[in-house]
Specification:
The protein is an alpha+beta fold and about 270 residues long. About 50% of the residues lie in helices and about 10% in strands. The chain is built from 10 helices and 4 strands, in the order ααααααβαβααββα. A 4-stranded antiparallel β-sheet has the order 2-1-4-3. The two termini are about 50 Å apart.
């Protein structure tokens, strides 16, 4: 029983979350209450220099380094004064930013997890629609125009099924005579919504129709089809692992949030009370 508990992913997430909080407190201890003292640490300066180097692809000059430190101090002075005046309270932008930072902190533990093949296969089986390759169909078409008669349809079908060159039948159009194996979204994009769904039920190899598109009427010969399929894990491992991590991060965040919320007594006042 205990061994099974130790293998539970949720327990791992909670332990990682707790470790994150402890680590953050160790690495970022609360400074002593000295409201009139600003200390620019070597770590602060290194961070400023790294940010400059990342942006400009070179180290800052002494003058630029001094300007960055002055800017850091200016920001600290103004932020502290704003906090002293209570300007951070009831500010939606600040609250949203703090929420985003906390959410990132809570979910970052998922990056430390290494999924097994079994984990990924289970996730893939539970979310097949995210990774499924849609069905495809290939076809030839002959355009009959925006309007046609049954006599014209019968004559065109007889000619085509009798071996006539498709270029010699029907009317001229800029639409392609042949479309290779393509997903429904691509076919509908070219011929109009719902066209792919209509032609996929037609027989393979014979000319049939007519089928209406956004341009008019067509005779169709299906040249091939491929059903929807779910790729093997090895061929989409990176995508599945990214999805697995996102799901674990969401689960981790929600689990720790519930633990944090439990610390509070929450009261919701009814309107008008």
């Amino acid at each position: 029983m205990f061994g099974k508990l130790l293998r539970e992913p949720l327990l791992h997430f909670l332990l990682l979350g707790a470790a994150l909080f402890v680590g953050y407190q160790v690495l970022n201890p609360e400074p002593a209450a000295e409201p009139d003292r600003i200390v620019v640490t070597a770590q602060d300066i290194a961070g400023l220099e790294q940010s400059f180097q990342t942006t400009w692809r070179r180290a800052p000059t002494d003058k630029e380094r001094g300007a960055m430190i002055d800017g850091f101090i200016r920001q600290e002075v103004l932020v502290r004064e704003a906090e002293a005046l209570g300007l951070d309270r009831n500010d939606t932008v600040i609250r949203q930013r703090l929420q985003q930072k906390m959410t990132f902190l809570l979910s970052s533990g998922a990056n430390a997890l290494e999924p097994s093949d079994e984990d990924l296969q289970t996730y893939l089986a539970a979310n097949p629609d995210r990774y499924r390759i849609s069905g495809r169909v290939g076809f030839d078409q002959v355009y009959l125009g925006q309007s046609t008669t049954q006599a014209e349809i019968d004559a065109a079908l007889a000619a085509l099924n009798g071996g006539a060159d498709p270029h010699s039948v029907g009317r001229q159009t800029l639409l392609p005579l042949s479309t290779p194996l393509s997903p429904a979204v691509a076919i509908d994009s070219a011929f109009g919504s719902g066209f792919a769904g209509t032609i996929e039920a037609l027989p393979v190899g014979d000319w049939s129709g007519p089928v209406r598109s956004g341009f008019g009427y067509h005779l169709i010969r299906i040249t091939g089809s491929a059903p929807a399929s779910l790729p093997a894990l090895d061929s989409i491992r990176d995508k599945v692992e990214a999805g697995w991590r996102d799901a674990r991060a969401e689960e981790l965040t929600e689990s720790i949030y519930q633990e944090l919320q439990a610390r509070f007594t929450i009261e919701i006042e009814e309107a008008g009370t």
